[in-house]
Amino acid sequence: MKNVKVRLEPIVSKINLPTVLKTNILPGDSVERLFIATQVGEIFHIGNGVVRTFLDIRNRVIELGASSGGYDERGLLGLAFHLNFYYNGLFYLHYSVAGTQGPGAGSKDFKPDPCDPETLNQRWVNRETQYDHIDTVEEWVLQSNGKPQKRRTLLNLRRPFFNHNGVNSLNFSPETGKLVLTTGDGGSSYDPFNISQNNLEIAGKIIEIDVSKNTSLQNPPIVTRFDELPPTIQDTLTIMAKGVRNIPGISFQRFNQQYIKYAGNVGQDMVESIYSFAHYNPIPVTQLVQASNQNGFINFGWRGWEGAFPTSTINECTNNSSLDKKTIAYYNEAVALSGSRLPPLTSYFHKDPRPDKFGGTALTGVQPYMGNKIEGLSGNVVFTDLARRGSQSQVKGVLAYTSIRPDGKQNDFSVIQTDYDFGSQSAYYVTLGTNLNQNRLYLGVYGSMKVADFNKGTVFEIVQ
Questions:
Q1: Mean pLDDT to the nearest integer, 144-163
Q2: Are residues 312 and 265 in contact, defined by beta-carbon separation less than 8 angstroms?
Q3: Residue 443's closest CA among 387, 413, 399?
Q4: Of 453, 395, 397, whose CA–CA distance to 425 is shortest?
Q5: What angle do CA 397, 399, 405 make, to 5 degrees?
Q6: Is the confidence at residue 67, as pLDDT, over 90?
Q7: Phi/psi class of residue 294: alpha, beta or left (left: φ > 0; alpha: ψ in -120 to 50)?
Q8: Residue 120: what pLDDT?
Q9: 76-80, 165-169, 254-258, 449-453: which has the minimum mean pLDDT?
Q10: Are the C-beta atoms of 399 and 443 separated by less than 8 Å?
């Protein structure tokens, strides 16, 4: 693969942690503006170098970082514009709702023990009281006076833990015209309740929402499962994929009269993975509720598989702390999924001794690049990792890329050399975005792992 070198060109700085970067054109306007959503609940847009507030919902978003030392995976997580936004002004939000903090559904640091069946067969019980928070997906409209207004709620979802809610979690499919919600497995670690493989659980799935259908419900019930939804809402939903651990959105690349879909699965302790698929068999939720043993899903394999490997617990070797041993956590599940899971397009590891690779932390963005101004990247898939593991003095994220192989097999990846001096500042690469034509790339960087450390964010354009 080619060696690619890029520069980072700052667009805006001193903002809160950015979760979504995408562009659109306001109704009646002619300028394609960059929209920036922050985890705390702000949305800005930038056009002709001017930064303006589009919407501020901080009073609607749950208090962040209070119970986790400043780190949090809740907040404003998704922003998507209707494909006809220029004409109808419709856009969609996914966020964690203020005032819904619960006690949680169990330990945040669960670890399975293959010798203890009880740890392999846990269930989420007392869901109405034992949960962490509630997420909502809403439809909004930009009114003729330029002010956004909420129109309706599409989903209210009860979540067991504070983490794995997805990020950049709403995107419209140019193929079907539907809104796509990408949501994680509910959190903790190792998916203790095996939610991602349960067909009736909403968490751990990639879900299509037909927003053209009117459900006649302004405030849907708070649910965790598809069979708890009213039939009118079930009728708007289809399932694209399951076996998701945590996911930084889905992206679409037009190729030979079809769309290739890209989605990443954030790993547990060993590997981060990027998946691609063109064809899939969408399962209507109404059909799923009638017969939950449906087959035909795209299946990323979690929790039995972590990318291309059976999910494993990792422990230090007793006689040599520099070595570790990996024990398959869910052997029977790994065997059952071995022939039906989707293999990843590429993977990268948390530990990698190869000099041209890196040890990663968490996948934070996946975007195809269709421009021609960055030599060597055209037609390829760019991805970001939160922070390179290693001995460097300052924390810094990683840019890399891969591409589809003609034979469809797993491919290698290459690190993109990035020219920018962050000085003594930490630089966590927290999100990746693109414009409407996918010929420009945007990178969100934050100076802290804690969302409660405010105004440490910078958004860059990736240029050559």
A1: 97
A2: no
A3: 399
A4: 395
A5: 145
A6: no
A7: beta
A8: 96
A9: 254-258
A10: yes
At 22, list the tokens: 């995408």
User: What integer best gives the mean pLDDT of the chain?
Assistant: 96
d(CA 194, CA 414): 33
Instruction: Decide the pairing of beta strands 222-223 and 312-317.
Output: unpaired
DSSP state of 324: E
DSSP 26-39: -TT---EEEEEEET
Identify the pLDDT of residue 391. Answer: 61
Q: Which of the 8 DSSP states describes residue 381? A: E
What token pair was written down for 347? 């993977």
> Which amino acid appears at position 247 of this protein?
I
Report residue 248: phi and psi, to 5°.
Answer: -90, 55
Q: Could you give the strand order of the β-sheet that contains 90-96, starting from the edge strand earlier in sequence? A: 76-81, 90-96, 133-142, 148-159, 222-223
118: which residues sit within 8 A by CB, 6+ positions away? none
Residue 375 gets which letter from DSSP?
T
The residues pairing with 415 across neighbouring beta strands, listed in sequence order, are 400
Residue 204's nearest CA partner among 215, 214, 217, 193 is 193
| Token digits of residue 461 | 């354009």
Q: Which residues pair with 412 in a beta bridge?
A: none
pLDDT tens-place string over residues 295-308: 888 999 999 999 99
- Of the two residues 26 and 214, the one the predictor is more confident about is 26
pTM surpassing 0.90? yes
> Which of 94, 96, 57 shows the shortest CA–CA distance to 75?
96
When pLDDT is averaged across residues 374-391 and rounded to a whole number, the result is: 94
Q: What is the pLDDT of residues 387-422, one digit of tens each?
A: 999 867 789 999 999 998 877 789 999 999 999 999
Please give the pLDDT value at position 194.
Answer: 97
- For residues 322 and 348, the answer to whether their CB atoms sit within 8 Å is no
pLDDT band of 122, cuts 50, 70, 90: very high
What are the distances in angstroms from CA 36 to CA 209, 245, 282, 308? Answer: 23, 25, 31, 33
Domain ranges of the chain: 5-463
Q: Taking the alpha carbons of 148, 154, 159, 165 in that order, is the dihedral positive or negative?
A: negative
Spell out the SS3 assignment of 182-235: ECCCCCCCCCCCCHHHCCCECCCCEEEECCCCCCCCCCCCEECEHHHCCHHHHC
The whole-number average pLDDT for the span 420-448 is 97
Instruction: Identify residue 18 by its one-letter amino acid code.
Output: P
The CATH class that applies to domain 5-463 reads mainly beta
